[in-house]
Amino acid sequence: MNSYQLMEGIGEIDSRFLQEADDYQNKSTHRAPIRWLSLAACLAIAVSAGVLYTKWSGIPAENNSAMTADMAAPDDNAVSQNAAEAAPFSAKMADDAPLYLADGIAYALVSTPAVLEQNGLPDTVSEDAVGEVIAVLDDDIKICTYLPLEDVPAIRVLSKTDMQPQFLFYQGQATEYSLGTLYGFSAAEDIDQISVNDQPLSTEDIAQIAESLAELKPDLAFTPEETTPDNIIQIRLQNGLTFQLSFAEFGTVLKLFDLYYPAEDILATLLHESE
Amino acid sequence: MDDSQIIALYWERSEDAIAQTDQKYGAYCRKISMNILHNTEDAEECVSDAYLGVWNAIPPQRPTIFSAFLGKITRNISLHRWQKNRAAKRGGGDTGILLSELEECLSSPESFDDSFDARALGGILNGFLDTLTLEQRVLFVRRYWYADPIEAVAEKTGMSISKATSMLFRLRKRLRIYLEKEGVSL
After folding, report:
1. B144 touches chain A (CB under 8 A)
2. Which of chain B's residues have a Cβ under 8 Å away from the Cβ of A3?
3. Per-residue pLDDT reduced to its tens digit, A96-140
4. Does B53 touch chain A if contact means CB atoms closer than 8 Å?
5. To the nearest 5 percent, what fractions of chain A are helix, strand and coil?
6. In angstroms, what separates the C-alpha of B94 from chain A's closest C-alpha?
7. Which of A9, A51, A124, A184 is 20 to 30 Å from A194 at the Cα level?
């Protein structure tokens, strides 16, 4: 059978399905007005059908690498045990690095072996690890799931004809996801380690904050002050992924890329423990 | 005029039947045809041929859902015209993309099955559609029966384009498994 014959066969389906598809009215036809939140969100919506070839302007570069993404300078991304030398925290994205958008999430390519290794990922994406297509950017450019971490939106695969598939890491947006959904964790047992300014938390402390941390969703109404976040929380998960959040010492929110998560209780616990 | 009255006109062999059909369903038929042919002139001819087809079919037939009956005839004629145009290397539009998507459901997409029975396959596809949720069915039927562009399908179902694309991808994979299970020669 060829595809034309299949198309003919589809033409013979029961009339009730045609009427159903004709009469269908989706529930979200009457959507609430879009809430315009930030420059970055507007930007993402404006180019939601394609690839955003632009700088990540307006967001300081050092805060632009919450995941241990390399972006530009492989030498700056060596795995380090020392926060002061923790290059992924200060890795900069190349000015012309493209962002790939899917479902309102911005992704960037990551190919530096050290970063991939730190995240428990192989050097290259094998063809059979490329999962379902979640966005078609062009005729031959697709964003797909990465099968071993299929339910983790923070990591995807860029699939392009005549090119080895490459890893894509979360770079921003995703206002609908909780932290746990985004990175694939829900409880203390999913977490390998949490460090605050390179000081590992105890198992008990992790148990205390893990669930609340996983359930955190962005506070879309939050307007940041001029304070520069100066504390880094690095979270290493059992699924291999590592990401980091930042907060100003007396703040009540955690920052992940361009989003702020209300986390008063969590921060109170962390600050108390670090005293 | 309601559908039963239009059908009655066909049974009476009244030429007003076609005028009434065009008035009520002309836009519907043209959209189906345009989705496949992407050519106004060809689509117009196909719709006229479809009316003639309905005229020849009623009587003896008395369709229960007239719009679907008319739509099916329009779709078949348009699809055949598309194939003819393609053979003559004329036009084609997005229907080629649609067919290449459907190739994912087949193991040997280039093979022509001499014993192919579209109606029998339609029956199997009814079974497949019954396994889907309403949203999935609508998505599948809008894309592969009505040949709606992805953007239109996404809008109709209230999904993002990427979500609709992803769901269609999953549905094609499911269809392939279903057809294999049903013993359809792929």
Report:
1. yes
2. 99-100, 102-103, 105-106, 109
3. 456 788 877 888 888 778 888 888 888 888 888 888 888 887 767
4. no
5. 30, 25, 45
6. 12
7. A124
Task: Answer yes or no: do B64 and A102 touch at CB < 8 A.
Answer: no
In A2-140 the beta strands, taken as DSSP E runs, fall at: 51-52, 99-102, 105-110, 130-138
Give CA angle at B79 (B74, B80), nearest 5°.
Answer: 105
Residue B176 C-beta-side C-alpha neighbours within 13 Å: 16
- Chain A: nearest CA to B158, how far in angstroms? 6
Instruction: Indicate the pairing of strand A259-262 with strand A199-200.
Output: unpaired
**Closest alpha carbon to A14 in B183, B175, B84, B122:** B122
Residue of B nearest to A137 (CA): B162
**Contact yes or no for A103 and B162 at CB 8 A:** yes
**Alpha carbon of B65: minimum distance to chain A alpha carbons (Å):** 7
- Please report, as a single letter, which amino acid is at residue A184: G
Tell the burial category of A271 from Cβ atoms under 10 Å away from its Cβ (0-12, 13-18, 19+). middle
CB-count exposure of residue B181 (10 Å: 0-12, 13-18, 19+): exposed
ipTM rounded to 2 decimals? 0.91
Residue at token pair 């013979």: A12
- Is the overall model pTM greater than 0.90, yes or no? no
Q: At what angle do helices A203-215 and A264-274 cross, to 10 degrees?
A: 160
* Structure letter (DSSP) for residue A67: B
Distance CA A190, CA A152 (A): 13
DSSP letters for B1-22: --HHHHHHHHHTT-THHHHHHH
Q: Which helix (H) or strand (E) holds A253?
A: strand A253-256
Supply φ then ψ for residue A171, to 5 degrees.
Answer: -130, -5
Quick count: other Cβ atoms within 10 Å of Cβ B94? 14
Ramachandran bin of A244, using left for φ above 0, alpha for ψ from -120 to 50, beta for the remaining angles: beta
Instruction: List B residues 14-33 in contact with A (Cβ-Cβ < 8 A).
Output: none
Q: What six digits make up the tokens of A7? A: 């198309």
